[in-house]
Amino acid sequence: MTDRTILLATETYAPTINGVAISVRQQAKALREAGYLVRIMTPRQAKAKEELAVYRVPSIQLPNPHIYPLTLPLSQFTLTNDYKTALKGVELIHLQHISFLTVALLIYAKRHRLPTIYTYHTFLEHYLGRLLVINFLLRPVLRWLTKSFANQTDQVIVPTKSVKRYLKELGVKTKITVVPTGIEVQKYRRGRRSWLEGKHHIPTDKLIISYIGRLAQEKNVDLIPTALAPLIEREDWHLLMVGDGPARANLEHHFAVLNLTDR
């Protein structure tokens, strides 16, 4: 057991459902089970429930509901005075993004000589490039921002070797460690194919090709209809997609154009 305190800083957290929010919750759970004291700092959300050791900072919600709440700029004065409880006794700050929140915390950590870890979850230039028309102008800026931010931290964590190579190519000098994103395996068990047949009329003797996740462009879901098109003449498979998101309407249209709607 230990009484060491870790602060996790993230731009997305419950009630938002995405990979980072789930990852942060799993990190907090595992660290607490190991005996650490864990606090979480994240933007305020209208529908968020109060949670012990979760500190919500001022944020704005843009008109687009698919864009998460964004933290407002935080001064060191605001951090030090308004969030004393969140920062009291913290010995390590784990940053999950590049944002106003994490930049403020990085500066705070430097001033108080606290170690920092940065987990690189998302290819920023690819993710924002799909959202913004001016991607070709933003890419160099985002690459520089990623490199500069990572090089100010003490350790960088990435989920795969390919991401590590990418950051190295950008010029990241900070030590990079590959830590695959964990899953709670106890939640997964042998499924009941009979349920699929009863609810979705999918015969149990068919091959089931499945996708489970957010239906968003950054997940490259637009490749799924094209990849399945060569199988249209075969009758021994069905596609099961579980999830929702901004790319759903476009996907449904794509499936219709390829005559795959009933598959």
From TrEMBL:
Residues 17-186 form the Glycosyltransferase subfamily 4-like N-terminal domain. The keyword Transferase applies. Signal peptide: none annotated. It holds the Pfam family Glycos_transf_1. Residues 199-262 form the Glycosyl transferase family domain. Keywords: Transferase. GO terms for molecular function: glycosyltransferase activity. InterPro entries: Glyco_trans_1, Glyco_trans_4-like_N, Glycosyltransferase_grp1. This is Glycosyltransferase. It comes from Candidatus Berkelbacteria bacterium Gr01-1014_85.
